[in-house]
Amino acid sequence: MTALTCRYDWTLPEVQALFDLPIMELLYQAHTVHQQMFDPNEIQFSSLMSIKTGGCPEDCGYCPQSSHHGTDLERERLVELQRVVSEAQAAKDRGATRFCMGAAWKNPNARDFPLVLDMVRSVKDLGLECCVTLGSLDEDQTRALKDAGLDYHNHNLDTSREHYEKIITTRKFQDRLDTLEKVRDAGINVCCGGILGLGEGESDRSSLLMNWPICLNTPAACPSICW
Ligand code: SF4
Asked: What is the full DSSP assignment across 19-39?
C-alpha cells in the first residue's frame, strides 16, 4: 500500500473531478484513505453541551439561536460551572472521552471568558478531552484557552466563500479563516466542518472543500466528522 502524504494545494478542477467520480469509486477511495490514516474500527464518543443558548447577534441563516430570526428560543445566560461539571461527569460515565461546549455569541466577552476558562479546566480535571465552540477569538484568548488545557476549538467554515453572503452577513468567510489561524498558531487542534444543503451549488461545495484543508493543522487534527 502506498504511503499517503497530506496535500494542502488542491486546485478547484481537482476537487471538482472528485465530484465527478462514480459514487462507489469515491466510497472506495475514501474508505482506503480512512483505513490508512485511522484505526478503521475505532470511534470516539463525544458529548456536546450548550453553555449559552439563544440571543446570538450573528445572523446565520440556518440557526434558530440567532436573534435576527423569529424563533421561540429563549435567550439564556452562561450556565453555572457546577452544571458543566455535572454534565461532563455524566457524559464520562456514559463512555464519552471528549466533552464539547458551545456558546451562542459572536465572541466571548470579558465578563464570561474567565468563567469559560474555569469550565475548560474543570473538564480537563475529569480526565476528558475538551472542545469548545466560542465564535471569533483574538490571540490573547487563544493563548489563554491553550494554557487552560483546551484540546480542540470548533469553528466551521459554514459554506463557500462565494456563497457566504447569502447565508451570513454579520461576518465574512475570511473572518473564519483568521480565527482558525489563531487557534492553530496557539497549538490548539482545529475542529472544522461545513454545512451542506444551504442552497449552494456543486461549485460551492468544491470551493468549500478546497479551502477546508488550510484550516487544519495536522492531517489527523480532526478525527470528528463534522459534515
Ligand atoms: S454564530 Fe452560532 S449560535 Fe450564533 S447564529 Fe451563527 S450558528 Fe447560531
From this structure: HTS-HHHHHHHHHHHHHHHS-
In this structure, what CATH number is given to the domain that contains residue 134?
3.20.20.70
d(CA 78, ligand 1 centre) in Å: 15
The answer to whether residue 35 sits within a structural domain is: no
Q: What is the dihedral sign for C-alpha 92, 110, 147, 151? A: positive
Owner of C-alpha cell 480535571 = 125
| Atom nearest to 133 CA in ligand 1 | 2
Please report the atom of ligand 1 found closest to the CA of residue 106. Answer: 1
Digit-coded pLDDT (tens) for 104-149: 999 999 999 999 999 999 999 999 999 999 999 999 999 999 999 9
Split into its structural domains, the chain has a count of: 1
Q: Which residues line ligand 1 (CB under 6 A)?
A: 56, 58, 60, 63, 65-66, 104, 135
Neighbouring C-beta atoms of residue 179, cutoff 10 Å: 23
Note down the domain range covering 106. Answer: 42-155+172-192
Q: Can you give the pTM of this predicted structure? A: 0.88
**Gap between the Cα atoms of 118 and 97, Å rounded:** 19
